[in-house]
Amino acid sequence: MAERTLRGARLGGQSFEDERGIEFAARQRVAYICPAEHDFEIVMAAEAEVPPVWECPRCGAEAISRDGAPPEPKVEKPARTHWDMLLERRSVKELEEILAERLELLRGGEIGPAHLHKANAKRSRR
Fold first, then answer.
1. Is 27 exposed, middle or buried (0-12, 13-18, 19+ CB in 10 A)?
2. First-to-final CA distance of the chain
3. Domain formed by 25-71, architecture
């Protein structure tokens, strides 16, 4: 292994390639300003779609592009609750019937916590 390494090269050191003859991609600078009035620029490819909002590197707030149009407001869907999902599967009438059945079983001691079953078993033995 020692015979194959370059002398004087360090691990993670400099590259032996030079930049002669390399044509870099066209770039653009996009300026942003955040609510705390921090100005900063981001370098992007010329053909890249410029996002209207970028996270401020100083405070983390949403910065708005100085040159572009203001960002479009996001359309937020209301959160689906457990009740909403339940109503997609069953009607209120069906739910009331199921509740009545389960309450009857619970009161009869057929379902429910184990300590209730023991109490009912002792009563029935007497």
1. exposed
2. 88
3. Single Sheet (2.20)
Domain boundaries, the chain: 25-71, 82-125
The distance of Cα 103 from the centroid of its chain, to the nearest Å, equals 40
Amino acid letter at 126?
R
pLDDT digits (tens, 9 = 90+) for 97-116: 999 999 999 888 888 887 76
Task: Give backbone dihedrals phi and psi of 122, rounded to 5 degrees, phi first.
Answer: -65, -40
Residue 109 DSSP label: T
The predicted structure's pLDDT at residue 45: 93
pTM above 0.70, yes or no: no
Backbone angles phi, psi at 13, to 5 degrees: -85, -145
